[in-house]
Specification:
This protein has helices at residues 10-20, 53-56, 65-77, 88-100, 114-129, 146-150, 157-160, 176-182, 206-219, 273-276, 292-307, 310-325, 349-358, 382-400, and strands at 32-36, 39-42, 47-50, 105-111, 133-137, 168-171, 187-192, 195-196, 202-203, 222-226, 253-256, 267-272, 331-337, 340-345, 361-362, 371-374. The protein has 401 residues and is α/β, with parallel strands linked by helices. A 7-stranded mixed sheet has the order 4-12-11-10-7-5-6, with helices on both faces. It has a 4-stranded mixed sheet with strand order 1-2-3-15. It has a 3-stranded antiparallel sheet with strand order 13-14-16. Helix 3 packs antiparallel against helix 11, helix 4 packs across helix 11 (292-307) and helix 12 packs parallel to helix 14 (382-400). The structure holds pyridoxal-5'-phosphate. Pyridoxal-5'-phosphate binds next to helix 5.
Length: 401
């Protein structure tokens, strides 16, 4: 039985995984055995500082005790029943999620991943408008299923997703004139990552979101914020939508996944009345959506973020990181908000990522070769940011000499 301590050495684990899976992921040369907060421990017993948060998923930190307890208790009661029955847990989670969302977003739909949330958002927008065209942005990433990958104008993704779904049109992020020339009365939706994470943590001015909202209102277009990365506290707000980062504007749909279940796979759309009023029985659905185990994880995730003051901490992390890294010799700029940050270097980020990994700090790269991405748990401490800064000072000094 494979339940207790991992007993294999790293190269045995590597051989086992690579031997029986397609090698579609570029992996770091470690095997993670357990985690706590912003730390993970490997098969060799080494502790790593995880400033990549398990790929933007572990917002509450690894195996937060409140989340673990909720999952254990739910698992002992009932692991799963589908939406063919009612569930108190599911009802309470939907209520809670809507209560932290911008006021106009009033109805939730649960699914299993980010790409699926975006597929459903685009479908709902088409249902609500009776139109087909979707506008999305160069640099945005929305997932790997048919509609989501067709809305992804970033690197090779659309190419690997061929044949693409028709009626997807590209606009330039942050440039309202470009959006205006693509938008018309055949446009169902405009979908965007409000901070383009994978593209290198690219931001737009708050004014851009106001212009998008105005344009959508004028032409009857559904505005979708893909908050798969920015949602659930990561930017120092529960949602980018409705916050001062978006100049207070609210989209018609927000999509979520990643942090939502602290690592239990779950995605969601939250709709406003304008869109939800068009969604009828059997229009959207998925077997596993809203299953009790995932719902228990979502509720506990939101509670843990609230109880531990993690949203405030996310803002503090950004402040501390900016303060301590901006003056380093090879740092050009810090991009992003809260715990979604990109450090732009004068040198390739892949080298810095590698050097940090050798010093047992996990970070991420992006499609901008000079931007190192940090997606740390929202509970990361200032001292842990200090560990990163100490290493960067060493690597910066090395780069500057
Ligand atoms: C902004 C954004 N949207 C959608 C997705 C797709 O999510 P998933 O991998 O859960 O399908 C991702 C994944 O990285 C993402 O970053």
């Amino acid at each position: 039985m494979f339940l207790g301590r991992i007993e294999m050495k790293f190269n045995e684990i590597q051989e086992l995984e690579d031997g029986y899976q397609v090698t579609t992921y570029k992996k770091m040369g470690i095997a993670v055995e357990r985690g706590s907060g912003a730390s993970v421990w490997t098969s060799e017993g080494d502790r790593y500082l995880d400033l990549y948060g398990g790929h933007a998923v572990c917002a509450t930190g690894h195996s937060h005790p409140h989340v673990v307890k909720a999952i254990q208790e739910q698992a002992a009661k009932v692991l799963f029943y589908s939406n063919l029955v009612y569930s108190e847990t599911r009802g309470r989670v939907a209520e809670k999620l809507v209560s932290i969302a911008p006021p106009s977003l009033t109805k939730a739909f649960f699914c299993n991943s980010g790409t699926e949330a975006n597929e459903n958002a685009m479908r709902a927008a088409r249902m609500a408008t009776g139109r087909e065209k979707i506008i999305s942005f160069s640099g945005g990433f929305h997932g790997r299923t048919a509609d989501s990958i067709s809305a992804t104008f970033l690197g090779k993704y659309r190419e690997i997703g061929k044949p693409n779904v028709p009626f997807h049109v590209e606009a330039e992020f942050g440039n309202i004139d470009s959006v205006k020339s693509a938008a018309d009365d055949a446009t169902a939706a405009i979908i965007l990552e409000p901070i383009q994470s994978m593209a290198g943590v690219r931001e737009a001015a708050p004014e851009f979101f106001v212009q998008l909202r105005d344009l959508c209102d004028e032409l009857g277009i559904v505005l979708v914020f893909d908050e798969v990365q920015t949602g659930i506290g990561r930017t120092g707000h529960w949602f980018f939508a409705g916050s001062d980062l978006a100049a207070g504007i609210e989209p018609d749909i927000v999509t979520l996944a990643k942090s939502l279940g602290s690592g239990v796979p779950v995605g969601a759309c939250i709709f406003n009345e304008r869109v939800s009023s068009h969604i009828k029985e059997n229009d959207l659905g998925t077997t596993f959506g809203g299953g009790m185990l995932a719902m228990a994880a979502v509720l506990a995730t939101i509670e843990a973020i609230e109880q531990d003051g993690m949203i405030e901490n996310a803002r503090l992390i950004e402040e501390v990181l900016r303060e301590q890294t901006l003056d380093l010799p090879n740092v050009v700029a810090i991009h992003g908000k809260g715990c979604l940050l990109g450090i732009e270097f004068t040198t390739p980020a892949a080298n810095i990522h590698g050097m940090l990994l050798e010093r047992k700090i996990i970070t991420g790269t992006s499609s901008d070769p000079n931007v190192l991405r940090l997606l740390p748990p929202l509970c990361t401490s200032q001292a842990q940011i200090g560990e990163l800064v100490t290493c960067l000072v060493q690597t910066s000094a090395g780069a500057a000499s």
